[in-house]
Every structure is written in C-alpha cells, then in structure tokens.
Write a structure and sequence with these properties.
The structure holds two protein chains of two kinds. By secondary structure, chain A is α/β, with parallel strands linked by helices. In chain A, about 40% of the residues lie in helices and about 15% in strands. Chain A contains five helices and five strands; from the N terminus they run βαβαβαβαβα. A five-stranded parallel sheet of chain A has the order 2-1-3-4-5, with helices on both faces. The longest helix of chain A is centred in the last third of the chain and has 19 residues. Chain A is globular, with a radius of gyration of 17 Å. In chain B, strands 3, 4, 5, 6, 11, 12 and 13 form a seven-stranded mixed sheet that branches. The chains are: A alpha/beta, B alpha+beta. The interface between A and B is large, with 31 and 45 residues.
C-alpha cells in the first residue's frame, strides 16, 4: 500500500499517562472536618449541596461548611478556586452534575481536589454516568468513584431536594472516608 | 472513440471506507479516506502552519490544529479549495462562547449554522439559492460536515460518551448557508459582523433548531412580522430570561419588507418590541419565575397581566437572506447562547 490512511484524531502521538490515578488520603471520619461545597449553579445544586453540608454537620460531626460557586458549570473549576478551597477545607463535595458538560466537569473537579490532597465526592445525576466515567478516564483516573442521585434534579421541590440529599448522604460519607 | 479513464477499484475503496468506520472516525456516513498527498493539497491552500492550534477544549484536554482540520475536512468530502472556508467557519465558531464552553457536550445537541458571504460563494460553487438548508450541494454539505468531524475526532466529543444530546436535531452537521446576496435588498450578513461588503467572510453560531414561517397570505409586511414573532415567542424554547432567535428570510419576504421601508435594524427593533409572552402564558407553561437568569414554575400570579419581552438586543436577532424567490417561506433559527456578532474573513489568520 503506497499511502497510509491518516488519523483525524491526533491522539496517536499523544503520550499516554501511566501514573497512578490521583487519590487523596482518606479520613477515618468527618468529625471536626470543614466541608467544602463546590456549587455549579445548576438548578437545585445549591440547596442540594447545602443540605448535604448541613446533614454532615448534624449527623457526622463536621464542624464547618464553606460554599463556593463555580460560575461556568461547563468547565472545570478555576485553579485559584481549587487552591482557596484546598487551603480552607478538609473534604470537598461537587455538583450537581446533571447535564452533558457539567456532570463531566463535576468529576474533573473531584479529581483535581484529589490531586491537591483533599478527598472529594462528586454528585451526578444517574443519567450521566457514561460521560462522567469518560471524563474520569481523560483525567487519568479511570474508574473514579462518585455518588449518583436519580435523574432529574432540576424540577424537584425544596422538600424533594432535602430528601434526595439525605438519600445520597451515606454514599458521600463512604467516598470521603476510609 | 476515446478510451474511458480507468475506473478506480471499488473493492479497494470499500475496504478503505470500512477501515475508517472501524476506527470510530465516522459520523455515520462513509468518509473519504485521507492520504498524505490529499491533505497536503488542503494545507497548500493556506499560509497557516500545520501545527497552529486553531481551537482548544480545555475541559477535555484536546485541541485542533490546522493539520487535523485538514484531515477531517478531507474525510468530510471537501475539495482542497474549500479548506480556507472550513478554517474561517471554525474560527467563527470558536468565537462563540457556547462552542468554547460545554456546547458540544450539551443535552440540547446544538447545530452550527454557518453563513458564507462574498465572492467565494460563486468561486467555489456554493448553493446560494433554492434549498438553502440543503441537501444537494457539495461545498455547503461538506464544509458543515467537516466541522462535525473536527468536533468528533479532534476534540473527541462522541455521541453517548462526552456528547450527551437528548434528541439532537435534524441537520446538526449540515447547515451551511451561502447568503443570497444577489436577491437580498440589504447589506450582506458579514457586514453585520463587521466585514466590508465584497469581502469573502464566514459567520457562525449554534442553533437549537429551525422553524419555518410559511406566509404567502398577505401583502402587509407587518402581518408577516407578526407571524414571525409568534414563532419566536413560543414558550417551549424559552429557558432563560432572554432568548436569541434569528430569521433567515426568503428573498420574497425580505424584498416585501424592504419595499415597505424596513431596513434590518427596523426589523430587529420591531421584533424586540413585539416578541414575548404575558405572565399568564408563561405561568401556564411553568416558566414565569426567574431565579437569576433561569426560568422556573412560580405559583405567583401577580404578573399574569404583564407582557415580558425576550429579545434584549439586535445582536440577539441576526437576519440573513437565503433561499429561492419562489415562495414566501422564511425560517426562524433558534440560537443556542448568543451570536458573537462577528464575521471571519476567508483566508486570513485571525
């Protein structure tokens, strides 16, 4: 064959990372921990994460909550925001991933915090597992574990949001602790 | 009798096409297998370096170079001479905030709408008249398809994985209009994007859908505008406080409006004034409340009698003229996000 068929992806030349996926050391429990909530502006994300933060204080002994909002839900959190939250918090919760780009970026944020040394729990709607998994793979963390809540989230009433937060709580704690 | 040129080996062609499918490169239709000489012919049409990065998607850690754009354009079925238009279209799209952000991954599955202006339309054989939204014409069809292949292959945004379109929309990678400047009563669309008349230029934005307005019923231009306004104002498309909807006017509607004294800014002002819904209409559809820019179902009835306008600026109402002068059928194009308001000259490094 005189010529090869050319690859349109540009990925064959890219170096494949073989480093171990980033994973921060886990705490035994959440007593005394400051919980960082990275809210992505999606409908109901703020009340959902607020309730998770409240329950972690009420039931698991966390002593503080720091909520920050990521303005662009489609993109990973800016570096200075990751830095600030890493300095101020002990564990991180990101979400809610309930769209094509924001579920992927919620997982990307979780992995960024793991790299920075903080245990993180990303919460995504269960309709976006494939795209969340694909992002984890892109970030060098194939099989990265995150919590899911049933789809949809945006239309839930305040009571339903609180109920959902309570339901996902054990999974979040399991992700953050050893 | 002259000897017929030797026909290529169909089995070799089939094998090459199947090879491309097996690599996962195809959008579902057969690809032209790209070879080094073919791609070199594409690269020869531009002064830009093959390794120049022309687009970056930070969140997925991928970028597109001039070289990768050339490979994908070749695979899409473009001729080499279309390549400067592909580059201009891609540059124009990457000026869209939605395309740089999560647009390609979005559940809405938006379609690029590419508009070509200037002499390049006829030099390259773009369809500028009937059937503007396609199909049937190689430059229009393959330039749009090239963008789709770049997103799939260079950016790695594939359906069901990083691309999460709920239903997608017809024509996602096939909308490349060449404006019917010859029958338009107004300056070319590229002029609205800041390019002088007579310059070949490409504009682009993302669409959520296209909706026809068939009005062959009246000689009163204002009645036509009311018909357009009704389509623009439907509640199903409203998700935020503001929306953006362009109109691709057919020549007949455009000429009728122009003859009645409407220039483009007049039409934009008219539509900004008249497009919208009452609070009661919005409440009925569960979209009357506002939390920041996002709509939600608010039980509060106090604004039922208030008329809410939805188009905040002329840039939110881009106007294009395309199609044949054979019926009074125009198209409302529902924009995803907001058009950048710029056009990109063909053959120029931005």
């Amino acid at each position: 064959m005189p010529y090869q068929i050319l690859d349109p992806t540009g990925t064959t030349q890219a170096a494949h990372e073989t480093a171990a996926p980033p994973r921060a050391p886990r705490r035994a429990d959440l007593r005394g921990a400051t919980v960082g909530l990275l809210v992505n502006t999606k409908q109901n994300a703020a009340p959902f994460l607020d309730e998770v933060g409240r329950l972690l204080q009420e039931r698991y002994g966390a002593t503080g909550v720091l909520a920050r909002t990521k303005v662009n839900f489609a993109a990973p959190a800016p570096e200075d925001l990751v830095k600030e939250m890493t300095a101020e918090c002990d564990v991180i919760i990101t979400g809610i991933g309930d769209c094509g780009s924001c579920s992927a970026s919620a997982v990307a944020d979780g992995i960024a915090f793991e790299s920075a040394g903080l245990p993180a729990a990303a919460i995504c709607s269960d309709a976006f597992r494939v795209t969340a998994d694909a992002m984890a793979e892109l970030r060098g963390a194939p099989g990265y574990r995150y919590a899911t809540t049933p789809h949809p989230v945006a239309v839930l009433t305040p009571d339903q949001v609180r109920e959902r937060a309570a339901r996902v709580l054990d999974d979040v704690v399991a992700l953050l602790t050893a | 009798m002259t000897e017929a040129p030797e026909a290529p080996d169909p089995e070799a062609a089939q094998a090459a096409i199947e090879y491309c499918y097996a690599q996962g490169w195809s959008d579902g239709l057969p690809l032209v297998p790209a070879s080094q000489p073919l791609v070199e012919a594409f690269l020869a049409t531009t002064t830009r370096a093959p390794d120049e990065v022309i687009g970056e998607l930070e969140q997925v850690g991928r970028n597109c170079t001039v070289y990768l754009a050339a490979v994908n354009a070749a695979m899409a079925g473009c001729l080499p001479e279309y390549f400067p238009v592909v580059l201009a279209a891609f540059d124009a799209l990457m000026r869209e905030r939605a395309a740089r952000g999560g647009g390609w991954q979005s559940t809405s599955g938006p379609a690029p709408m590419i508009v070509v202006n200037g002499p390049v339309r006829h030099e390259l054989g773009f369809n500028t008249v009937g059937g503007a939204f396609g199909p049937g014409f190689r430059p229009n069809a393959t330039v749009a398809r090239a963008i789709g292949l770049i997103v799939r292959n260079a950016f790695g945004i594939r359906p069901h994985v990083l691309e999460q379109a709920t239903q997608g929309l017809p024509g996602r990678w096939s909308i490349c209009l060449a404006e019917n400047e010859e029958e338009s009563p107004w300056p070319p669309f590229a002029a609205d994007g800041g390019q002088p008349e007579g310059v070949s230029a490409v504009s682009a934005t993302l669409l959520r859908t296209c909706e026809f307005v068939d009005n062959r019923h009246t000689q009163d231009p204002e009645q036509v505008l009311w018909d357009v306004a009704d389509t623009i104002s439907r509640t199903g498309s409203l998700i935020f406080r503001d929306t953006s909807a362009g109109v691709v006017f057919c020549p007949e509607h455009a000429q009728m409006l122009s003859a009645a004294g409407y220039a483009k800014p007049d039409i934009q002002a008219w539509l900004m004034e008249h497009c919208g819904r009452t609070g009661a209409d919005l409440r009925r559809a569960g979209k009357n409340g506002l939390r920041g820019p996002a709509r939600f179902a608010d039980p509060d009835e106090s604004a039922d009698g208030t008329f809410t306008r939805i188009l905040p600026s002329p840039t939110h109402v881009p106007l294009v003229v395309a199609g044949a002068r054979n019926a009074a059928i125009s198209m409302v194009v529902r924009i995803f996000g907001e058009w950048s308001g710029t056009a990109t000259p063909v053959g120029v490094t931005p």
